Amino acid sequence: MAYDEELAARVRDAVSERAPFTEQKMFGGVAFMVHTHMAVGVGGDELMVHVGTDGHATAIADGAHEMRMGERTMRGMVAVPPQVTADDDALHAWVGRGVELALATPPKPPKKPRSP
């Protein structure tokens, strides 16, 4: 699945204003990793936001929908349709949710190298 490059550029700018990050190809799109955690991403034309289980219901009430991977619902992750993120202020608010959660979570320990 291709992803919206223009949305990715807008998200990249919004994340860079808040925290250092890396990018990683994930879910057929691109994920923005903050503090070793996926904060937000872009899949197709939608913004993916890690809101955590505590923020899930609020995010749904604010216009997002549950994120699904095949038959599995990804609790704590939401997809935000393009009409909800068309406005830069709205996009920045959604990105802020994901970045704040990533920064509040202890970083993951480095992965051990695979043995040959």
Automatic annotation (TrEMBL):
What is the protein's given name?
TfoX/Sxy family protein
Give the taxonomic lineage as stored in the record: Bacteria, Bacillati, Actinomycetota, Actinomycetes, Micrococcales
Ranges for domain TfoX N-terminal: 15-100
Q: InterPro entries, from UniProt?
A: TfoX_N (IPR007076)
Q: Report the Pfam families cross-referenced here.
A: TfoX_N
